[in-house]
Specification:
CATH topology: Thiol Ester Dehydrase, Chain A
Number of helices: 4
Strand order of the largest sheet: 1-2-6-7-8-5
Number of domains: 1
Strand content: 25-35%
Helix content: 25-40%
Protein name: PaaI family thioesterase
GO molecular function: 1,4-dihydroxy-2-naphthoyl-CoA thioesterase activity
InterPro entries: HotDog_dom_sf, PAAI_dom, Thioestr_dom
Pfam families: 4HBT
Structural class: alpha+beta
CATH architecture: Roll
Distance between the termini: 22 Å
Order of helices and strands: HHEEEEHEEEEH
Keywords: Hydrolase
Shape: globular
Largest sheet: 6 strands, antiparallel
Number of strands: 8
Length: about 150
Amino acid sequence: MTGNPIFERAQRFLSVLRHCQVLGMTVHSADTKGLILRLPYSTQIIGNPETGVIHGGAITTLMDTTCGISTVCVLPDFEVCPTLDLRIDYMHPAEPNKDVYGFAECYRVTPNIIFTRGYAYQDDPSQPIAHVVGTFMRMGKTVASGVAGKEGAQ
């Protein structure tokens, strides 16, 4: 373990998302300032076989997941927070044979909604592949405790 409870909570969250396991996503870093997830390059996520460019759906999944898990960086306790709205602006395609990183932060937390923003990048965060903004609905701790109980039962 890292000794960082936010990082550990983010790892636990990511570990129960089967589609993220299949994509090989991992938590790169997590703290109160935000979250970075890594999507490893793989031939299974190529969208254009002629160029080797990653499919936009894999980038969308990375960014939705990064924004969603970034909620654990700001909330005192785990809550289920499903996506209400997500907008991604693609700047340019990801370079083939390189991992993609997604950064997200929560910039406003209300009793009902969490607002997030972030970007996807490869080598240099100042050269983003895409920008993202998302809103997530707070379901509360009672829903989360039901989910946590199901995790422990598996």
